[in-house]
Amino acid sequence: MSGPLEMLVTPQEMGRIDHAAAASGIDSYALMRAAGTAVAARLLARFPHVERVAVLCGPGNNGGDGYVAARACAQAGVPVVVHSLGDPAKLEGDARHAFDDAGMQPQALADYHPQGGDVVVDALFGAGLSRAIEGEAADCIDRIGEAATPVVAIDLPSGVGGDSGAVLGTALQAVETVTFFARKPGHLLMPGRDLCGTLSVVDIGIPARYASLADSRVVENTPALWQHVFPHAQAAGHKFARGHLGVFSGPMSATGAARLSAEAGLTAGAGLVTVASSGQALAVNAAHLTAVMVKRVDTLEDVRDFASDNRMKAFVLGPGFGVGAKVRDYALALRENALVLDADGITAFAEERPALAEAFSAGDTRLVVTPHAGEFARLFPDFVPEEGRSKLDAARLAAAAINAIVVFKGSDTVIAAPDGRAAINTNAPPWLATAGAGDVLSGITGGLLSQSMPAFEAAAAAVWLHGEAARHAGPGMTADDLPQALARVQRDGLFADRRFDGSAGRTS
């Protein structure tokens, strides 16, 4: 499947696509042969001196792919053993055809014990698994893990949920995963993304038009999603044309978070940024800021006056601000404006979510909330990811509940809109998990909102740029390094060379 936006396909949708392709007259067994042969080719390319291939076949079509792969490896002159889960004589359809063509007598799965030099082909369950693995399959997976035997997985490592990326009981760690037609959410959501190893998407002959049978609103977060509305400075423009962002500061002992947000917003392109500070913290903020302005804001009336200036385009509230009625009052006073609500601002509405939802219920989506897992659980306890609900599902439910863009942060940040659009981000390096990084993300988001970028695209772009800046800064970076790294990302031409070709964050 090709195109600038590569959507993600759930296992259920993939089933419909397979069925529709077969119903149209496409030879489904030819597709299986193409799949299994592609797996064998990837294995032999990666392990050209493999001593033995152990193919573990399940009772469905994933197992059928495995029998094809086993035959292809044997034809290449590699020793092959096959172990089956269940009685292969009970296989039906294409899987039975593949078993018959392979001409191999499988041993029981319980009898597989890894040997030195083995490479395992995991053809047990694939993406359609919906319950925890147990019994002999779980025991076999554990033996493979203990032996650290390399695994090439078909579709998804067994034990990884195709919808959620969650581990269902136990799961194999693959060095490579080969999937077909399109990626599933479980390929991008953690821990599934890590368990997949290197991911390859292989074209086995299903026409791209069948993508119309899937929900095209769920994609990976790449620049192809938002580049068409990304703001660029115009030759005849001026600072107010690029937007004015307001960032609310916390008390004197907690001003740093707001300054991080403010600097990030300025770097993201806002023409002006003003830190709204209490009189108590005014001197501290003024002493540390140069290009960012400072304004005294002590009361709710001051907030309303600040927001009434039609040159103010967006606000950031919450980083270092403190939890309580004051932050709720400020947020509700900004209900007509674009607002990024983060950190303390999220926690403050834990018991008052209906008020937040009501305030931003009308009109275009203009509220962006950016919770990490703990904050998400406080604001959306009814949507917390759990068995049967993925992080993707949780974020989409939360977004619809409060008519906001929800940025559910983490190594697999999900950006969700009330209308069901969602994007999963993959380019964040592990060293981005550092104090203050979230404050920078809020500032980038606010800076893009201030330039009138639509809220969903602004949040998605901010998350991607945040990750790219961290990658550019490298290990050992701190949150203070991120705005400067973001400026370098733009100045060094990565905008044209890496972002807008949609390639960053892709797997190979």
UniProtKB/TrEMBL annotation:
Question: Can you tell me which residues bind K(+)?
Answer: 62, 122, 158
Q: Which positions fall inside the YjeF N-terminal domain?
A: 14-212
Entry-linked PROSITE patterns: YJEF_C_3, YJEF_N
Q: Which UniProt keywords apply?
A: ATP-binding, Isomerase, Lyase, Metal-binding, Multifunctional enzyme, NAD, NADP, Nucleotide-binding, Potassium
Cofactor(s) named in the record: K(+); Mg(2+)
Reactions listed under catalytic activity: (6R)-NADPHX = (6S)-NADPHX; (6S)-NADHX + ADP = AMP + phosphate + NADH + H(+); (6R)-NADHX = (6S)-NADHX; (6S)-NADPHX + ADP = AMP + phosphate + NADPH + H(+)
Tell me the GO molecular function terms: ADP-dependent NAD(P)H-hydrate dehydratase activity; ATP binding; metal ion binding; NAD(P)HX epimerase activity
Kindly list the positions annotated as binding AMP.
Answer: 409-413, 438
Q: Which Pfam families match?
A: Carb_kinase, YjeF_N
Q: Which BP terms does GO give this entry?
A: metabolite repair; nicotinamide nucleotide metabolic process
Q: Where does (6S)-NADPHX bind?
A: 61-65, 126-132, 155, 257, 320, 372, 439
Q: Which residues form the YjeF C-terminal domain?
A: 222-493
- Identify the EC number(s): 4.2.1.136, 5.1.99.6
Q: Does the keyword ATP-binding apply?
A: yes
Q: Which InterPro entries match?
A: CARKD, Nnr, Ribokinase-like, YjeF_N_dom, YjeF_N_dom_sf
Keyword Electron transport applies: no
**Function as written in the Swiss-Prot or TrEMBL entry:** Bifunctional enzyme that catalyzes the epimerization of the S- and R-forms of NAD(P)HX and the dehydration of the S-form of NAD(P)HX at the expense of ADP, which is converted to AMP. This allows the repair of both epimers of NAD(P)HX, a damaged form of NAD(P)H that is a result of enzymatic or heat-dependent hydration.
Q: Which family does it belong to?
A: Belongs to the NnrD/CARKD family.
Alphabetized PANTHER family for the sequence: ATP-DEPENDENT (S)-NAD(P)H-HYDRATE DEHYDRATASE (PTHR12592:SF0), ATP-DEPENDENT (S)-NAD(P)H-HYDRATE DEHYDRATASE FAMILY MEMBER (PTHR12592)
Q: How does it assemble?
A: Homotetramer.
Q: What is this protein called?
A: Bifunctional NAD(P)H-hydrate repair enzyme
The source organism is Pararhizobium mangrovi
